[in-house]
Design brief:
The complex is a heterodimer of chains A (406) and B (195).
Chain A (H helix, E strand, L loop, with lengths): L2 H13 L5 H21 L3 H5 L7 H7 L15 H20 L3 H18 L6 H13 L10 H8 L13 H22 L2 H5 L2 H5 L17 H19 L5 H21 L5 H6 L8 H16 L6 E5 L4 H13 L5 E5 L7 H4 L8 E4 L2 E4 H11 L4 H21 L1
Parallel strand pairs in A: 1-2
Antiparallel strand pairs in A: 1-3, 3-4
Helix pairs in contact in A: 2-5, 5-6, 6-7, 7-9, 8-16, 9-12, 12-13, 18-19
Chain B lengths: L1 H15 L7 H22 L5 H17 L15 E11 L4 E5 L8 H17 L8 H10 L1 H4 L3 E15 L5 E3 L3 E9 L7
Antiparallel strand pairs in B: 1-2, 1-3, 3-4, 3-5
The chains are: A mainly alpha (406), B alpha+beta (195).
Chain lengths: 406, 195
Amino acid sequence: MTAKSFLAAWNEFFFAEQSPIPIALFRVIYGVMVIATLLLMRPDWTEWYGPHAWVSLPTMQGVEPGPRLNLFTVMPGTYFWAQALFWVFLASAACLTIGFLTRVNSVVVYLCLASIQQRNLFILHGGDTFLRVAGFFLIFAPAGAALSVDRLIRIWRGREGAEIRPRRPWAQRMIQFELTLVYFVGFCWKVAGAPWVEGSALSYIYHLDELQRFPVPSWLLNPTILKLATWFTLVLEFALGILIWIKEIRYYLLAIGLFFHLCLEYSLNVPMFQWDVLSAYVLFIDAGDLERVWNRIRERVGRYFGERITVIYDGGSERLRRFANFLGAIDIFGRLSFVDSRDSASQGAARVKGARNELVAETSLGARHGSDALRTVAAAVPLLWPVYVGLGIQKLFKRAASVEAS
Amino acid sequence: MARKTKAAGVEKELRQKPLFGLKRWQYVAINGFLIFHILAICCWCMPFGSPFIAACRDALRPYFVWSGLFQSWDMFSPLPKSANAYMEALVLYKDGSTTIWSFPRMEQLTLTEKYSKERYRKFMESVLDEKNATLWPDVARHVARLPEIRSGGPQKVLLVARWSPVVRQEDGTFARGPWDEHVFYSYDVKPEDLQ
């Protein structure tokens, strides 16, 4: 490999633009993981982070000296502030999940996550560490470029069209790199330990009472089976650490990795670790494949939301074009198709008279205009159901007012 | 063939959009960021014992510790835990009575409790490690401050470790060994601890 070809490969890997859907989907799953972690810690929050926590702040600073990104060192050490941090963290994680002020909230979530982990390093497992380091690189990623409220706002304001613009994936690559490192470094540590090499490691682990979750069939706990499983773990960790970069075998490895983590989730009590790690698998799935899978789901699920609706809008109106783009982005189950009434090829204008300066919803029952059109559309799009309810209530009030007047 | 076509596509993109639409300083800065972090993270967490790597780790420590990028991926390795162990606190009261306070033990919890109390398992594991002896006074103080303990007037808190090794038997199977115990820390409760 020459320097020139290496540079081309480097550039292609880190900078060739690609769909931001995988990183956006990771953002959603990541946010859910953070929220779940927080809610699981809620009952003992002040036991770990309150003014009279199991480990005091001075002890923690004595054990691990040096400056750290840790909000506890600048916050007053009271119950109020410990609780406030929880609620700010939870709100920010929820905003990150839905992609509202994504960049700001990715920073806030990282700050809060780093703070609680720095505050007590003695209660962390590998899943927590992965969330932290992935959160660091998520700050730099275009995580709000798709599947986000931010994108809807940009469409609403006319700053973005219906198409999702491709982005440079360098920050996503760093999270992928971190995931492969989890496996590869794990593999390196394991081959340095005699119980892993001789095949007895899992026999020890499955005899630890504190780690047992659901009962495992006794034949699976046979020393020979556990020996094979120990070696399989080594092979899999190596494969997921190195071979996952080979596109041709990637999906097979991801499938085996998924099965492996689900088995661990069933049998071992290390809450959230498996899900934290699995969350990043989505980054290894091609955006085109994600779209194909989603299209299949939307086809199957979408039919339960009634017939498809044709939305006819006046493309000459900037406001209506933006609104149509907005509806297109929010229509997750593909219940709407769009026709520009000024587009001669679509014959939309010929089909519906009066589609100038307004939005028309065409169904098998005929065309609906104005707020009726909006209500019809809202009924078909799950994310607009609150609007549907709101419009229904508004209509009820209007009807009541007209009855009263007559 | 496909790879050649892709490479040609990237070269074409590079010609059309020099530096992938980035300004030169942005391209250099991002590459510097990437190269530094890839090398630094590898250096930090790879289990290599060379003096050069150790020196690099020392140099990186302030940044990694500050930013929260420190990481280790030695789950269950190199040696998996080979003993069941848990911890209890034996509390001696001023009136001469005693009580035993138990930390949440995973094997005695329901599934939902296991999810929310798992931090105690990890914490107990840390506390039982002699390397973390600096935690012991805090733990003893916290036990003394628990409402049900404080109300009785605690005078002394003893931290007790109980363990049972997982032993390999002659036929190659594994079994839990007999339980053993020892007091690993004793703390005299001061009046200010209960404030």
